[in-house]
Amino acid sequence: MTPPAPGEPTGSAEPTPVAAPPPNTLANAVAVDAKPADPEDSIPTEKTGTLMERVQDWRKKNELLETGAFFFVGFVYDVLTLSRIDDTFTLVQQFLYLGVLASLLVLEQRYPEGAEPPKALAKVWKWREDAIHFFYGSLLSSYTLFFFKSASGLTAFLFLVAMFGLMVANELPNFRQIGPVVRVALFSTCTGMYFAYLLPILIGRANFWVFLLAQVLAGGCVFGVMKLLRRWNILDQLQVLRQIALPGFSMLAALLFLYLVRVLPPVPLAVQFSGIYHAVEKQGSAYALSYQPKWWKFWHKGDQDFSARPGDKAYYFFSIFAPKGFATYKVNVRYYYDHPQKGWTNVSTVPLTINNKGIERGYRTFAYTSNPKPGDWRAVVETEDGHEISRLSFSVEEDTSTEARQFEVFMHDPDKKPEVVAEKK
User: Fold this and answer.
1) What's the rounded mean pLDDT across residues 192-202?
2) Which entry of 129, 270, 279, 403 is 20 to 30 Å from 358 by CA?
């Protein structure tokens, strides 16, 4: 090895360049096409849930919507299937519904959220909320429909809104934290209303004492729930008083108060048909009802716009339904006139004795007032103790014409569909 010339750096000899290997076309192609890995590709893809899992997820996100849906389904179900108020099957069905709701009320306290449910109910336990909403919707719709028949539509509508409000409140976290207060209030209300029309059907009478007995029986059901919860040591004495006794008995006391102030109607009595007429004539089993039709109110089959001449009588014709057990009872028909200075004034009261036969279309009868003054009027049907069953508003205007009047005749027959069959002067 030759020593380095003076001035040249000493060190290792520079390696001889090595020729690059021949290009591999396939490898280069792969290298060129390769891209940097996306960080998100390292995150495992979430597994698509089963149909049941997706349904449960939807239910958790839409609890209030689900509550309203099942309440509405229960309401529609009763609208389509509800029969007479004294139908045995209906009464038994509602009794079973109340029994199921009472059982769920107790079981939910014994097996709270997160606890393992009883083995016999393990497969259906997750659907208990939907069952509760459906049963309450069905029961409350029945009571609301019976209210519509026994009172003004506004009272029934407010009742339905109040009950639906309780059901929605039951789903709110603030209410759930204080225990089963709302559910006990709902159960107590439903039980009180059920006995409120079951007892009159069985006894054949509707008055304060029958209604009071109904609330006592409903209170016994609430007391039974209290005893079960205490016997199983689910709630202590203070919890039972606050969460069961207070809401349960308070709702029954509220129902009794509403009955005393005559807000609640005397179910099961119900006026099924009513109208104001110029004349009422009995023809065999049918009644011929004469009225002056108004072309702009073609849907009216009565004289709710009454044109009065001297000597006219304003007849209030109605058919009233009562269960078969109501053999004979009395009602009062009161005529009220909106006096310009005194306001609504009771002009006349007509007592009527109803010989009920339990017929589907109701017992038909009528009352009248003579020479009604021009203005606004009401005809009200009440029980002997003053509970309103039905009312019909009508107006009276003076008829100064001397020409012959044209009347249509509306035939009301219990064995046939009521219809307009003739016209007379």
Assistant:
1) 93
2) 279
pLDDT value at position 306? 93
Secondary structure E strands in 194-312: 270-277, 279-283, 286-291, 305-308
Start-to-end Cα distance in the chain:
149
197: helix, strand or coil: helix
Return the pLDDT at 243. Answer: 85
Give residue 271's Cα distance to chain centre.
21
Cα–Cα distance between 260 and 264 in angstroms, integer?
Answer: 8
Q: Helix H segments across 111-180?
A: 128-150, 153-171, 173-176
Q: What is the DSSP letter of 47?
A: P
Residues 269-313 pLDDT 10s: 888 889 999 999 998 888 999 998 877 766 677 888 999 999 999
| Cα dist from 363 to 103, 202, 282, 417, whole Å | 41, 19, 13, 15
CA 205 centroid distance within chain: 26
Using CA atoms, how far apart are residues 279 and 85, in angstroms rounded to an integer? 32
The residue that leads in pLDDT, 158 or 244, is 244
Token pair recorded at residue 101: 């709701």
What pTM value is reported for the model?
Answer: 0.72
Residue 372, Cα to own-chain centre: how many angstroms?
Answer: 39
